[in-house]
Amino acid sequence: MSIALQSAEASGEDRLSKVPEVTLVFWIIKIFCTTLGETGGDAVTMSMNLGYLVGTAIFAAIFLVAVAAQISAKRFHAFLYWTTIIATTTVGTTMADFADRSLGIGYAGGSLSLLCLLLASLGLWRWRMGSVAVDTVSSPKAEMFYWVTIMFSQTLGTALGDWTADSEGVGYLGGVAIFGLLLAAVAACHFWTKIPKTVLFWTAFILTRPLGAVVGDFLDKPLAHGGLNLSRYSASATLVVLVIGCILIFPQRAAKARSTRKTALL
């Protein structure tokens, strides 16, 4: 019996090892990936003139393949994990643009709808698995909830970034300042408050996406619109190099497994 229990515990740790430990480097790479999602998504839908619907179909297919590979993997692979993150942020970009612009829902309506989907995903995950903490993601079912929730958060973040920078008239640099300050506030709460770490993680995860969105728009939008008018292709290539460089220079460790029965909050 004890051998079987030890085997089960080891199995749980092996599955969880596909999720990296949340460190400062994690957040740096995450911001690079979200910015890449914006420039890469726009490169396909705008620069290639494929449109939001076709772009969404392309990136949705990549997203499904990447998630399937990630869930099927036996252990943590940094490049596979971050490829899947990039897939979620690119499909999130094109989905949000399609809903907001092609369907005419608008940034406010799109953001509200996506917020409801995100909360529903988190609620269902919490109800079915007992926790939404990332260090309890130790089964294929939990991983599916994890990636669906991430995809919704990335899509919501895109809509929030566009809404803030465009509709509210604060501009791209103003958007960077707003979301940068909000992330700093979340970091302060992490160190100096008793707010559950899971709440702070998902809050930060959502906020890094609109930050990446406004940074990406600042890089490739025309000078007349407040951007730097850089090529979407060159900006995306530079971001790919930065992501790869961070992965190679700062090796990441897998997060340690934690049973949902030991999870105090969320």
Report on the structure:
With 266 residues, this protein is mostly helical. The protein has one domain. Helices cover 76% and strands 0% of the residues. It contains nine helices and no strands. The protein has helices at 2-16, 24-47, 51-72, 78-102, 106-129, 140-167, 171-192, 197-220, 232-249. The chain starts with a helix and ends in a 17-residue tail after the last helix. The model is unreliable at 1-16 (pLDDT under 50).
Task: Please describe the structure with a list of short key phrases separated by commas or semicolons.
266 residues; mainly alpha; disordered N terminus
Identify low-pLDDT runs.
1-16
Helix segment count? Answer: 9
Largest pleated sheet: none
Class per helix and strand makeup: mainly alpha
Order of H and E elements: HHHHHHHHH
Number of strands: 0
How is the secondary structure organized here?
Blueprint: H1 2-16, H2 24-47, H3 51-72, H4 78-102, H5 106-129, H6 140-167, H7 171-192, H8 197-220, H9 232-249
Structure in a nutshell:
Helices cover 76% and strands 0% of the residues. It is mainly α. It is globular.
